[in-house]
UniProtKB/TrEMBL annotation:
It comes from the Bacteria. Keywords: Transferase. The lineage of its organism: Bacteria, Pseudomonadati, Myxococcota, Polyangia, Polyangiales. It comes from Sandaracinus amylolyticus. Coiled coil: none annotated. Residues 86-201 form the GST C-terminal domain. It is an enzyme of class 2 (transferase). GO terms for molecular function: glutathione binding; glutathione transferase activity. This is glutathione transferase. Residues 1-81 form the GST N-terminal domain.
Length: 201
């Protein structure tokens, strides 16, 4: 049995749910209410000592950290592989997962914080948009070489970026993707996948 303790609006939870949908796996989502800080409850902290989501429970095996979870699920579950078989495509996928973690998710979350109530700080917004633009330019070059982040096939590398592009779109920063030909083509493609439509819908 697969149980995910998370929140359907959480970017990291969405990575895990999209992976499960791509694998065709059945799972139970136990919603953690972030608005009431349920993630800081003693019950949740026993599962995730840093007080964030998601947490995976697979037949009693508990695992946290979304990037570790999606790699585990891809290896543990049957279904289509979300990891390139070619060693160089695999390396490129891992490179871009690292790029997402190091240079893309953080600035996106900073824009989310700026959008929450009050007047956004224009300097902070501009600084983080510049960081995102630089990373999107790197992604633009990669997607000019290959259909997906990891090569010819959809992979965990694509899943890693998807929740953040969706969040940017919701926050009014959709031009980060739409102003770049290859990124825009990629985002139109991956956001139309049934797995993503189910998770984000």
């Amino acid at each position: 049995m697969i149980t995910v303790h998370g929140n359907p609006h959480s970017t990291c939870t969405r990575k895990v749910l999209t992976t499960l949908e791509e694998k065709g796996a059945k799972y139970d989502l136990r919603v953690v209410d972030l608005a009431t800080k349920q993630q800081k409850s003693s019950e949740h902290l026993a599962r995730q000592p840093f007080g964030v989501v998601p947490v995976l429970d697979h037949d009693g095996f508990e695992l946290y950290e979304s990037r570790a979870i999606v790699r585990y699920l891809d290896r543990a579950l049957p279904g289509v592989s979300l990891t390139p078989s070619d060693v160089r495509d695999y390396a490129r996928m891992e490179q871009f997962i690292s790029i997402e973690q190091s240079y893309f998710s953080g600035p996106t979350i900073q824009l989310l914080y700026q959008a929450r109530g009050g007047q956004p700080d224009a300097k902070i917004v501009d600084e983080n948009r510049a960081k995102l633009a630089h990373t999107a330019d790197v992604l633009e070059r990669r997607l000019g070489e290959a259909k997906y982040v990891g090569g010819a096939s959809f992979s965990l590398g694509d899943i890693s970026f998807m929740p953040y592009f969706a969040l940017l779109e919701r926050l009014g920063h959709g031009d980060i993707a739409s102003s770049r030909k290859n990124v825009s083509r990629w985002w139109t493609d991956v956001s139309a996948r049934e797995s993503w439509k189910k998770v984000s819908g």
